[in-house]
Batch of 4 targets.
Target 1
Amino acid sequence: MRLADFILQNMEPILQQWEDFAKMLTPAAAGMDALALRDHAEQMLRTIAADLQTTQSPEARILKSHGNAPRSNTITSAETHADLRHASGFTIGQVIAEYRALRTSVLALWLPPDHVSKDQEANDVIRFNEAIDQALAESVVTYTTAVETARNVFLGVLGHDLRSPLGAVLLSAEVLLRTGDLPPKPTKNVSRIYMSVKRSIKIVGDLLDFTRTQLGSGIPVRIENNDLAQTCRGMVEEAQAYHLDRQIDLLTEYTLPWRFDKSRMEQVIANLIGNAIQHGEADTPVTVTLKAVDGFALLSVHNAGRPIEEGAKASLFNPLIRHLQGGVEYGAEAGLGLGLYIASAIVSAHQGSIEVESEAGSGTTFTVCIPSIVD
């Protein structure tokens, strides 16, 4: 009996072994009925048997081994199985273990009769393993997608819920500072509260922006006519007020009318200046340059200091990546390390680009390029 026929004729004992194994994987499985424990296993086995009974060319085998097997647009039983196992509290390791157990069970139960040749036996085993691997790959991709979606929704809800209490603390601290009648020591403490909460609100904002990009909606921008030079000048003045011990030079024309999202570009400029201050040499200036060239606005932020390592440049704008240089975290000023990633996403939303040049002796320069017209 060929392996495909064996699977179809011995479905119940195979499913029983699947059920018995699944029941041992997690405490939650102890309370599941047979239907839930066998979730979509029969459909997967029938799909595997049908695959074994289908003639496969060498070219098709190569495509399948590369993960390029043709498939319909419908959701497979393996994908549905992964979603339900995730919802039932199974870990990804336990889902993988189910497929390993299924593979072992079927091959151990199947004893090829004498009339099945060695070539047929080997072909059946190879095709069976390919089909199991295909189902496993579908389940793993679906499971990890479900985990990422759940995580991003959680982060979005968390960030949204944190904004209100943090805003109340910030407003209260601001009111106390404006009274002007606090003694020096309380004034200093309230100032620390104000700055810490303001930084926390920035981190929460970065978290929400990160969640938007991960959920596929992207960072929203409102393109309007505004003055890019004045926006840049305002962010330089704000950064200088926070860093009285650092020199920040601005090189730009007095005005530069442009179409852009003012609040979002303020985020970009603040992130790049903060990054330059954090990682530049303390006794050297940070230079911000803005100019228009051939229909593009070019904004560059330069700092002297140790260059970014070549191996770090490729992942510099990736989320939650921290680069260590001499024991110092290389990333955005925010503790989550999302600043550069969010800056890149905002620039992309403006149909622009952001690049970095960093060499020993010449320092590091981030350059943002924004087109003049955005559809």
Note: Confidence is low (pLDDT under 50) at residues 323-334.
Target 2
Amino acid sequence: MALAQGDFLLLTAGKAHEVLRDPNCTATPLDQLPVEPVSEVYETLSFGGGGETTQLMYGVMRPDHAASSILMALLPDQLHISRWSQSSTAWLQGTMQFIADEAQEQRPGGEMVITRLADVLVIEAIRTWLNTRGGAESGCVGAVRDPQIGRELVQIHQCPDKDWSVHSLAQVAGMSRSAFSAKFTNLIDMSVKRYLTMWRMHLARDHLLRTTQPISAIAAELGYSSEPTFHRAFKRVFGIPPGAVRRHADRQEMDAN
């Protein structure tokens, strides 16, 4: 892929890649290049010489919201936003220039500013993709944009603990039970009940990794009056019981300390 001045590229799958001046060059592994730490999070790198100077901003993101796995599964392996794209010119160039200025001047609070602006870049890149025809027709994206199914998805996401049924969700969407069920399955490629369970279990996993809440409390918070029922649902989605996720999180915290 040829990148021009001012372009933005988001590699969503984290695949190995090379950045080359031209296709005939040989890449030098990143760990063999001289790096100058700026802080615990940021560093600068200078390499080569003799040709025209190219400046790149490079970063790594880790999506950790409960909805991240659903969203990332929808995205293509790479999102390429061109500076000449009419919908992206203003925000893309302005944000990238701001980040470049902060990185170069290293002013107080610069790390926080760069981090927040990098978040904006990623969010806006995904929004730009969502607003394209290809993105809008893809699974959950198309469902979110649908005036009926989208309204129901908002309710599920905001109130996962509610005792939802296909009938009650169809009422929210303003449709008959059968029409709603068929349209939802066609757009999402899974049944309403399966999607609701999946959303609840991703939220549960997020709680297990981020908090010290008892598993019983997490189950109750997500609308499960029976802890064994919650355990079975969790294992169906992730293949392991919730306790195993909690133990893994505890081990990671101990290793970090």
Note: The chain has a mean pLDDT of 82.
Target 3
Amino acid sequence: MLSQKLRIYPSKLTEQKLCEHLDLCKWLYNRLLEELNMAKSQKRRIGQKETQHLIVELKKQNPELGNVYSKVLQMVNYQLWSNVHVLASMKKRGRKIGRLRFKGKWFKTLNFNQSGFKIEGKKLCLSKIGKVNVKLHRPLRGRIKGVIIKRELSGKWHAIFQCENVRSALPEVNRSVGIDVGVKHFLTETDGRQVENPRFYEKTLNRMKFVQHQLSRKQKSSRNRCKQRLKLARLHERLVNQRNDFLHKLSRFYANNYDIIAVECLNITNIVRNRNLAGKILDASWGRFLQMLAYKAENAGRQFVRANPRGTSQEYKHGKLDRDFNASLNILERGLLGLGRPFQPVEMKPLLAIPASIIIETGSPCPSG
């Protein structure tokens, strides 16, 4: 399943309907959670099917629920139980967890799963809501299995189309690469490129502090506070968009240009326990980058290999080299050996420093494109 996120532009009337549906879904979620808590206090067993049947009774109590498409209401119940199962699995792993919280002022999504939607030209038709303008800046690939309507904190609306994954294998290029991610440099790879860490969060931090300070000075529940909150939300959204744009372009380059891509099998949760580096590691978004690289490589018919990270920076088999470049060579060697392929020593040459701006502007770590 591949998710494609597109911007939608509801009219004022349609936006009002969407907000009403979100409020009703929030009410249903909290009511079902209340039933779960009550059953637990009474030591009474209750499952997903029971809460599913309860929706029919709740429609009699709150007739307005009938204004919401039935599948959307069912997915609210599914979301609740998904959260319950996640907390249970965390508890089994020894994590300290509390109770599942009730939804407050903000409920973000309407899930049209399998039905209740269709595309007519440049409009998205949603059952019991109406037609919404959608910006189809790229064609949707594969059969659409579901649509999630999401309200962002910035006030923008998006439609997330869940489509069947259609693979489009690229021709072989007979090239392989090992990639070592880091803090000082975002990545160093075996072809001699060292990509600069863009540090989007660090560059935005001062502005975010200023806007946050201004927000703290506004009177609660005032219109000025609401406007300032939107400014802060849009600043956060811009930061996420900048980071994702950089990661998408970089991961696409490697998926297009290499048959075998070897990376370290990193446990990022344990790595970020180092408080001195946690902020920089999270800003770099290694996990997000490797996730993008994995699914793009799979869709392109490439081989994506995770190598054992232990000692990759300490083993100097290829001469006295830059620490990160040496690690990338070891990663590639371990990745190729894991596939049963021989490792051919690469030509040693000076490392090429690639500014992050080159990737943002051209979509490639090659200055020539």
Note: The chain has two domains: 2-163, 176-362.
Target 4
Amino acid sequence: MQSFRPLGYNDKVIYLVYSEEPELARRSAMKLLKKEFPVRDETNYINLNFTTSSIKEIVDEVSFLPLGAESKAVFVENCTFLVKPGRAKPGTGSQKKKEKTVDADLAALAEYCKSPHANITLYLVAYSKDLDESNPVYQAVKNTGKICPALVPPRAGWIDFAQKFLKKYGSELNAEAAGEVVDRVDGDYGRFLGELAKLSIYANGEPVSTQTVETLVSRKLEDDTFVLSNALLKNDVASALSIYHDLNVHNVDEVRLLNTLASQIRFMDLVSFLYNAGMNKDSIARELGANPGRVGYTLASLRSVNPPSLEKILEGIYQTEKAILSGEEQPRFAFERFLANFQI
């Protein structure tokens, strides 16, 4: 058995890595793991995910070395027990799911972190912008381990990474095309990596142009839906159909598009309600946690629209989604019918 740590090693054997971008947090933690444990197998490496595991399982795993092993790594993903309530990244597991966690288990893990095993390295990975610093485990790791925020890089960093990524696969990506990729993924690090991989396969060693990026990388659905909803509110059905057909090039899911469109219409309804209640643009933006520019643009779009019209649109969206999910109509036909028959 290869020895990864000399006996008696006891320096930074606990790492707490966190980021609001799950893939960024995971990759940062895996980079640390691969550096310290380049060779891993079932005897010296345990991977847990708090979505399906418990704190007690973590405590159990860090409490012993396997027979014949001189070191061990325990990698725990999605540590929502370290996140402030309500701050967990959407889609990474629910805080409510862990409400029954026994306080004694958390206390036991915190106690272990105060005096960790010299030859067991614990990697705790959390998907959140910030953590609960009052948490006893956080406090213990702060004193005996290393807390590593995986910061989302600035736009220039994303562009540089994209260019280096494509270069590694023999393709050239100029700054303009790289910037287009960054703008289209809108801060989604996991999607960013996936789109770069797709571009590298498509390019096959050839240069990647901005036009290629526009063809292969779809814009964020919410942005397209915002443009689509404004076209509808202007009764510009032709433009709405054109936007939908552009989305279809990227195999858009009509049910998801309908849900996103419904969210946009509900946002408009909220803005309308608050504005009629006497609030100005900046106050509405603060109340809804929205971009003031988006609120201002929405208010401009609402000048010729009344609340009953918004309710009528939502009803049309509901009926269209119902027709698709029940199998009465094909998704594309149902959505095109919804747009073609649209009127306020």
Note: Residues 1-10, 94-101 have pLDDT under 50 and may be disordered.
